Amino acid sequence: MRPASDSRNVRGRASIRLTGVVGVCVLAIAAGAFFWFHRQASASSAAPRGNISTVVVRRADFREVLRLSGTTEALRSRPIVAPQLAGSAVSAMVITRIARGGTRVKRGDVLAEFDRQQQYKNFLDKQAQYYDLADQVKEKQAAEQAARAEDETNLKVAEDALQIAQLEVKKNEILSRIDAEINDEKLAEAKATLAQLRHTFVLKRQAAAAGIRVLEIKTDRAHQAMLNAEANANKMLIRSPMDGIVVLNEIWLNGRMGHAQEGTQVQPGVPFMRVVDPSRMDVHAEINQADMPYLHVGQKARVRLDAYPGLWFPGTLEQISPLGHAGMFSDRVRDFGGVFSIAGSNRKLMPDLSAAVDVELASQKNALVVPVESVASERDGSYVWLERGGGFEKHRITTGPENDLDVVVESGLKAGETIREYAPVSSAGAGAE
User: Fold this and answer.
1) SS3 for 29?
2) What is the pLDDT of residues 99-140, one digit of tens each?
3) How far apart are CA 376 and CA 384, in angstroms?
4) Whether 153 and 243 share a structural domain
5) 104, 173, 233, 419: most buried, per Cβ within 10 A?
6) Within this chain, do residues 401 and 369 fall inside the same structural domain, yes or no?
7) Distance of CA 214 to the CA centre of its chain
């Protein structure tokens, strides 16, 4: 067995060794922390280039542009509505033929056709009724002409009889009393007969005229009904009122919104398509309240179609709505409607296309520019990271106007100098210039 003093010596030496190991670990951690903080500070003030992407400060023509979003619309267009039929209560009509959206049409070309069988049947029925009544009018007029001729003959006979009786009465002075009385009676009878015939002649003519007039009214009504049925049948074949492009409108179709097609039922009076003139187009854009001070009527712009990125047209701001409406994201910020005219035409330029309108607010020739993402804005100014001595140094600059891509540098840089393409997210620990 070891003595107690030896055991105490062993425990003491073990304690000293453990203390030494802990001290070494603490020193290692402290040294690592020191080097890590030193590397972070060096990376901020003069970071080594490594694989960091760079850009060269350059001179270029700078344009400050305000981009607006809108939709193309035709300046001249004609709505095409489902026909409203005269004298017919039709709830819906079936399309049997329709032009496709985007089709170019000439004035008079067929745009759509509805099922016309019922209207043709109505037309034929009304036509037959009209012809029958017209024949009745002719028969009635012929019968009246014959009756009138007969009545006129009877009047002539009565007038002759009256003249004869008047002559016979003149002989009464030389005739006996009885013969004279007979002549007087014949004269009175002739006068009464003639008066009665004249009176009935007028009544017959009035009755005949009334009967003919009733038939004529019925005939006119039948004729108008026939014309209405014919017009209704013609209305159901719709032709283009102008040269242009067919644009189908979204309408309510059995519980959903959609475009009309063959077999679709459309209610009378519903505008189911348009014909637009693509030679004169506008862009209706929304202008945010914050952008209003930068815009004025007559300002030039470029109109780009989202569907055709390489295609653009010159544009001009024609009008700005004086009344605003609630914006999409906040009721406090108002949006105003703006109309930009488009100069020129193209087959791809059609209504209802989403468009981007770039309004030039400012421009500078041969300006010193750097990318937007290479500039960091802090409380005391703007900074870039300038390449120096194999690393990057935080460098203060004075900036001017900017757009979505570039910033104008008014002072602090020279053309040809190299800077970091993307400014660090945080500038903590960076050294001053």
Assistant:
1) helix
2) 998 889 999 999 999 998 888 888 899 999 999 999 999 999
3) 6
4) no
5) 419
6) yes
7) 52
Q: How many other β-carbons are positioned within 10 Å of the β-carbon of residue 199?
A: 10
Nearest to 292 by CA among 332, 260, 254, 322: 322
Tokens 């038939």 found at: 215
Q: Which residues contact 233 (CB under 8 A, 6 or more apart)?
A: 116, 119, 120, 123
**Same domain, yes or no: 109 and 244:** yes
List helix spans (H) across 47-116: none
Among candidate residues 178, 205, 235, the one where a domain is terminated: 235
φ, ψ of residue 381 to 5 degrees: the values are: 145, -165
Question: What does the block give as tokens for 31?
Answer: 């040294």
265-266/104-105 β-pairing? unpaired
Q: Could you say which of 235, 262, 286 is where a domain stops?
A: 235
Whole-angstrom distance, CA of residue 285 vs CA of residue 319: 11
CA distances to 107, 178, 240, 342, 407 from 349, in Å: 20, 113, 20, 10, 33
Determine, yes or no, domain membership for 130. yes
Amino acid (1-letter code) at residue 278:
P
Question: Is this prediction's pTM over 0.85?
Answer: no
Check: CB of residue 430 under 8 Å from CB of residue 92: no
Alpha helices, DSSP H only, in 93-176? 117-169
